[in-house]
What does this fold into?
Amino acid sequence: MNRLQSKREIDNIDCKILQTLMRDSRASFSEIAKETKTSISNIRNRFNRLQKDGIITGAVMDINPYALGYKTRATIRLRVLSTSLSETLEQLRSIPEILVAIKGFGRKNIICFALTHNTEELNQIVETIRNIPGVLETETNLNIGAGTEAHPENIKFR
It folds into this structure.
């Protein structure tokens, strides 16, 4: 079955497995078995089936970038020539401070989420983006408050 087309019904135990793992992706099968009053092997089999059916696709570690010195979070919206979208996305994804870059619809057709140590560093990133061929316009919004970041593969620790 195509992982994106999985439409199987999930029962209360499957729901409990998913809820527990979303709260703590490191929860053990024995913990989940105790909560659901079922066996560890049943939980393991259900977990494997949820993975096979494309319902569970991975596990995420959330971190607090503020604790690592990243004090500036921003959303950067771009208006890019439609003929340059793929190349622009590729270049954006190679910038370590850009956590996510995705295609969208509307006047601004790419949205990025950036994480930097300060506004000076953010300004340098925005200037780099403005110099990418096909980028017609940028709009940057600072995000207020510390938070956790899921999927921070690009964060530099040194």
